[in-house]
């Protein structure tokens, strides 16, 4: 039994805390909202995120990071744009020598950095890992079978951490490709917006399937240009996560995209309380990364036009369909 600290008391943080408990560890869930923390400790529920699902009674929730220096592993489960601020509050010294598992899928606006690059800047002595793959918080919290990728700098160390987090229904597969896994995780949210928009506009399953296939090809070009491994594309964090996010209404990014395809603006969708769609914030960074690497990424460009309000989905489809014909590979 180890001590696992989960930073972030939202749906995904609570779900991963549940998985860590099922793996036999002591779990401390760190949040900011006192009302939420008290509710978890008193009722073992997180109704605003997970409905009536009951959390393991052994999960202890707290405000702040007290005791984190005793952790055997730290899971950072905050939105991608909040990673830098959160790490600054925790402090690099508290994380020195510890495995820090980064669970957000997205790139930082302003710096264009991946999550592991932010960690390296603020906690250079931490041991970085990235958790990504086809997974929904409610499934994981409910103990439904889920397989993900756990990437580290050294594959042997990633195998150790994967074994530590593995439980009866949660199976992490080890990888040595942090860059590739992070790129896939950030990009799939952008493409989920586009796939959802196709659904919202009623363009049909054939169009959505074609979009998904070309998104996979585009992801490959971007991953390879950034220094990731080709093998990652065919794994859980690659095609596995892309396929789930681009086809399921449970995906916030896909649901957000559906609303965009129906003609809603980003601002009006946010007002409905649909929740955080990481792809909206990540899309401009993905485009900047594509340009920096000299990679052709027309689908990323189309999604950026859509979320900026500069083009509607029908205009974008026409634009993409009029691109020069060429060989598929």
Describe it for me?
By secondary structure, the chain is α/β, with parallel strands linked by helices. The protein has 2 domains: 3-176, Rossmann fold (3-Layer(aba) Sandwich), CATH 3.40.50.720; 179-321, N-(1-d-carboxylethyl)-l-norvaline Dehydrogenase, domain 2, CATH 1.10.1040. The protein is 53% helix and 13% strand. The chain is built from 17 helices and 8 strands. The chain has an 8-stranded mixed beta sheet with strand order 3-2-1-4-5-6-7-8, with helices on both faces. Helix 1 (11-22) links the parallel strand 1 and strand 2. 49% of the residues are buried. The mean pLDDT is 95.
Global shape: globular
The CA-CA distance between the termini, in Å, is 49 Å
Given helix and strand content, the structural type is alpha/beta
Number of helices: 17
Radius of gyration: 19 Å
Output the helix-strand order: EHEHHEEHHEHEHEHEHHHHHHHHH
Which superfamily, in CATH terms, is the homologous superfamily of the largest domain? NAD(P)-binding Rossmann-like Domain
Would you tell me which CATH topology of the largest domain applies? Rossmann fold
Percentage beta strand? 5-15%
Q: Any guess at the CATH architecture of the largest domain?
A: 3-Layer(aba) Sandwich
Give the total of beta strands: 8
Percent helix, as a range, is: 40-55%
Count of discrete domains: 2
Q: Oligomeric form of this entry?
A: single chain
**What are the low-pLDDT stretches, counting only 5+ consecutive residues below 50?**
none
Average pLDDT: 95
Give, in spatial order, the strands making up the sheet with the most strands.
Answer: 3-2-1-4-5-6-7-8
